[in-house]
Structure formats: C-alpha cells, structure tokens
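Final report, closing paragraph on structural work. Over the funding period we assembled a curated collection of sequence-structure pairs, and we close with a single example.
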Amino acid sequence: MTDESPMAPLTNGAASTAERFTLLWFVASVLASVAGAFASAALLIDYLGASPHFCDDQGGCGVLRASGLGWVGPVPLPAIGLAGNVLLALTLLLSGVRARAAHLVFAGMGAMVAALLIFTQFRMGVFCKYCMVVDVAMLVMVVLATLRSQHELDRPRSPVFAAIPVGAYFSAIAAPIAWGMFAPVIVPPTVAAELRNTPHEQVCLVDYVDYECPFCRQMHADMQPTLSAHPGKARIVRKNVPLSSKHPHAMVAARAACCAYDLDQGEPMASALMVAPLDQLTDDGCVAMAQKLGLDPQRFRACMSDPSIATRIDADIATFRREEVGHGLPTVWIDDHRISGAQGPEVFKATFEGALHDRGL
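Its predicted structure, as stored:
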C-alpha cells in the first residue's frame, strides 16, 4: 500500500487533466461547428430569398452573392457549406477510429475550400462577413480535428454531451430559416411604383442593367427562353446602372438604350446591345444598330447627345444606391421577388413562373 499510495494522486491528476483537455476540445469543436452552420444557413436564406435578411446587401456580401463565385452550377455555395457543417457535426458526435478519420478528412476538405475563398476575397478586395465566419470556423475545425486524431479524442460519454450539441445545431440552422420564411419582403419604392403601374395580366420585371457587364449579358440570355415561352406576360422596365469605372462603353450603351425606348424600339435595342461585340458599343456603333431597327440615325444621334438622357441615367444610378435596390449587377426584380446575379435560366424560370402563379395567370 505504501508503494502504491504516492502514485494514486498522480494517476488521478493525469486523468483529470485528460478529461479537462477532452472537454475543452469538444466545446471548442461544437462552438466552431455551430458558428459555421448558423452562418451557412443565414447565407443560404439570403441567396434564395428576394432580399437579404442577414448579410448586408451592400459591399462584399452583395458582390460575392451576385458573382459566379457564389454558385457551383445551380447550387448556391452556402448550401454546400451547410452540408459540410452537418457532416462535421455528425462525425464529431460519433466515436471511434472511423469517426475520427472521417472528421479529419471532411475538415481538411472544408479547410482547403475555406482557404481558397478567403484568398479570393483578398484578391477581390471585398469581404463577406458571414462568409468569413464560415471560412474561419472551417480552418479552426481542421486544427481541432487534427488534435482529435493525434490524441484519439472523442466526445465525453455522458448523453448530455450529445443532447446539447444536437439542440445547438438544430437551433443554429432552424433560426435563420424561420426568420427568412416569416420576415417581410421589403420592396424598394421605385420597384413598388412600377408594380402598381403593371396590369394584373402581366408580371412586372424591373431589370437594373449595365450593357457591358458580362453577368448582365448572361442574365439577359438566361431570361430569353422563359420570356419567349410566355409572350406578352412580362412588362419589362429597364433601369440603367452603367459601371463606367469598370466598363468604358457602358454609359454610351445606356444612352442608346434610353433613346431607343423613347422611340418605341427599347426591347429590340436592349437585345442588340446585349449581344453586340463590346467594341461596337460606341456612338457610331449604337447609331448603326438603331438604323438597323428602322430609326432615323440623325435623330437618334441627337437624342444620345441630349443632356436630359445623361440626367435620367444619373437618376437611375442614384436610386439604385439610395434605395438599396441591389448590391451589384445584374439585379432583376420579378414582382416582389429579386434575383441577384446571373443564377442560370432555371432560377429565372422558376421565379417568373412563380410570379405568374401568384397572379393567377
């Protein structure tokens, strides 16, 4: 007994330290995973909803959501992030060699994607705060998964350490989804005015556009199959938001579009501008397009030089910014639903036909 008694406190102390280390690791892992799940769910609601509820529609959040970087084909990137966080949560709650290995593999894959997305945001000079939460959480989780693998850690055996994390994960995912479902849609005043001016038998389509923007051009192409399948069912209103600092021909094309609408050839000119080579979006090129549409070239050129046209375009730009109509281009409102970015023809079709259904058409 005398030989063994001095060893007992050391053994108990070592066990206690190991238990504290395991508990600390588990709590940190749950917190990181819950943070990633909440941010992913919030982003997903913003991607799929008519207007954002969580990540500000201005700045980096909006730019990334509107760009092609926010989508993998028709699937929004936050949906993939949410699925990844669910997988990590499952492997975290399970025990054993396979669970630890799966946890490390999934965390490693997520961390590589997260590092790439953080690097991309630095290169673009824009940052989405919810995206950063997801990405940083994933980097933290790969560190914790590595510790788990090295020290053969599993969650504490008490059922409490399974029940509490499950409740936290459920709440982190359900809360933003519930808010997105029940929060009211805020339609900007300008869009609301166009909605009031739209006959019931038509869907109001307000398109904020830059004719040189590649995403706007893709959006235009995505719209055509659905609009062709429902002739006469859309009242299209074009609002010009030329990004002149990035697109040197955008303002010229916007002036041409305004003049064509004033002369009752707006939609044909809009389509021509969207498919024309960029080096044709000049004064002479736009006049040539107008002439092909049967418009008088001298009258059209005079219209493009009219200061009131530039004033009208400036008003569209100011309204876009003041009313927070959108965070980037393209932005298309279909009745009270908004599509941000070129999300593909399927998204436009579903939204447009949903608006038709809501109108009983």
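The two ends are 90 Å apart (CA to CA). Strands lie at 71-72, 75-76, 203-209, 234-240, 331-334, 337-340. We thank the funder for supporting this effort.
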